[in-house]
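Q: Predict the bound structure with zinc ion.
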Amino acid sequence: MRLIQCILTDNDCYKTNQWITPKGVMVHSTGANNPTLKRYVQSLETDEDYDQLIELLGYNRNANDWNRRGVGACVHAFIGKLADGSIATAQTLPWNMRGWHAGNGTTRPSANNTHISFEICEDGLDDADYFGKVYREAVELTAHLCALYDLDPLEPEVVICHREGYRLGMASRHADVEHWFPKFGKTMDDFRADVKAEMEDEEMTQEQFDAMMDDWLTRKSLQKPSGWSQADREWAQSNGIMKGIGDVDGDGETDYAYKSFPTREEMIAVAHRIVKMGKQ
Ligand SMILES: [Zn+2]
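A: Predicted complex:
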């Protein structure tokens, strides 16, 4: 996932400033053939990082983006194309701000009160390559949000699309995304399973972390020192201040792990050796 942030601070939804405790994620798609993020997401000229964001997003000359008053809707993120054509997620509201995406519920309170929402920018719904990329991005975004709010995507009503929300009575009558995903052989059940799998991929055990940390430290310790420190290293070695760690890589020379971190006991040993050297 490539996540950029461009909060739509001029949207009335943002200005309303209401907050929720997220209980799920609702997947939407825009219902219009325009896969570019700039159609919906724009930075304000007063934003600190305006130039950088407009370079990434491209500039919307039609003045119909959602960072303005009177739009009447707002989601937490959009998935679509950056100016260079690559796919990204633009976060457009704080994740736990109340969005305006589901409309009124028919038999229950609106999903606006419970669900984080994102729109996938639709193209002509006939490009398998584009679909594959935005589907993948949506899986990763949803997995990220479920992990963030400790949600299980396979529990009922947690990860749902707008249409499913309508059937559950918590959203207005829209078709998204069931008019699009099945064209490329994907159901919302597939989507939920893919989100779950993505979350499991990301979970790391303490053992795995420790093993990777050990491996990284070993590789770090075998990196060649920089040239600028040569005189200092020669001084430290010849005065017995820095001692080697043995021939770790088996090349017949003592290794000094100059690119690795010292422990506190190593630091104090070095300090002590310097002080003793000064007294000689
Ligand atoms: Zn929708």
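A: The chain has a mean pLDDT of 95.
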